[in-house]
Amino acid sequence: MTIAANAYIRYCRKRAAMSKESATTAASEDQPEAKPRAKKARGRVTVIRERCKGCGYCVAFCPTGVLEMSAEFNEKGYHFPQLVGGRDCTGCDLCGMYCPDFAISGARVPVEPTDEPDIEKQEQGVE
Ligand code: SF4
Ligand code: SF4
User: Fold this and answer.
1) Does residue 81 line the site of ligand 2, with CB under 6 A?
2) Which residue's alpha carbon is at the smallest distance from atom 2 of ligand 1?
3) What's the pTM?
């Protein structure tokens, strides 16, 4: 075999190895690593009744409309907000941002992916 033939064979082997390597890389790019499942979250709203002055801003600005003014009075004699349809609270905390008296706040509460939805656990948090 001539020197030229040997060089050509080496060239062909090198090309074959390179194409095999690029095929393996492409296959691994097609199948990205499985990402860990993100935890779900639900909203929770907390009302400190005695701080409330009954202005109703929180009710007016809640984007999901899950707040209403209670028929009850606090110690100051004001109606205070309460949650209706607790499953829809997103925990966005807009109510907390609008409240001039820091009497209400929303939060996102992480939930394990295996948790079953339980409406009883989503009750209003009242201090
Ligand atoms: S915004 Fe604050 S003070 Fe006004 S009703 Fe809501 S909780 Fe009460
Ligand atoms: S946290 Fe957001 S969705 Fe929940 S009650 Fe407050 S404003 Fe409404």
Assistant:
1) no
2) 99
3) 0.63
